[in-house]
């Protein structure tokens, strides 16, 4: 998508990121809870810890996607990054998630020299699972009853991608 720009987050983007997580799909697909406050998001995003890289997808001035890559700081896992991402409900299915993931993997592969990238995804999130598999991720395990969501326990797949040397 030519009109979507993936870039580093700025403080002025924080309300837009919060708005993504007001959406039903973002709440259902992540470990966030409904009704996120702006002050909580400001604390979380304005001064991230070392090794956390936060990106946004912007379309015509609107923040429509959010992603974060967490570079592990433990010396024995310094070759690993974990990521999470979400796309605003009304912009899903348009390739924005793929653009975010492409930039996350570019950062991991070409700038941080990460060998392994991993994440958890709810087992019923078929669009995300399809995207991750398309980008070389494989299911490495499953945890049933991993998180409580909308009145029931849900399982996740543990997915990972190891960069071939």
Automatic annotation (TrEMBL):
Domain of life per record: Bacteria
Limits of the N-acetyltransferase domain: 4-159
Organism expressing this protein natively: Endozoicomonas numazuensis
Entry keyword Transferase: yes
CDD domains with a match to the protein in the record: NAT_SF (cd04301)
Pfam annotation, one family: Acetyltransf_1
Keyword annotations from UniProtKB, A to Z: Transferase
GO molecular function: acyltransferase activity, transferring groups other than amino-acyl groups
Stated name of the protein: GCN5 family acetyltransferase
Keyword hit for DNA-binding: no
């Amino acid at each position: 998508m030519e009109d979507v720009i993936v870039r580093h987050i700025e403080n002025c983007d924080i309300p837009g990121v919060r708005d993504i997580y007001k959406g039903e799909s973002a709440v259902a697909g992540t470990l966030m809870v409904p009704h996120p406050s702006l002050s909580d998001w400001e604390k979380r995003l304005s001064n991230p810890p070392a090794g956390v890289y936060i990106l946004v997808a912007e379309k015509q001035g609107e923040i429509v996607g959010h992603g974060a890559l967490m570079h592990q700081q433990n010396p024995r896992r310094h070759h690993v990054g974990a990521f999470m991402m979400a796309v605003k409900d009304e912009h899903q299915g348009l390739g924005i998630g793929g653009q975010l993931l492409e930039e996350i993997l570019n950062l991991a592969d070409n700038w941080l020299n990460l060998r392994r990238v991993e994440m958890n995804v709810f087992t019923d999130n078929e669009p995300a699972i399809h995207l991750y598999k398309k980008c070389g991720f494989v299911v490495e395990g499953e945890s049933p009853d991993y998180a409580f969501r909308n009145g029931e326990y849900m399982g996740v797949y543990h997915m990972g991608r190891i960069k071939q040397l």
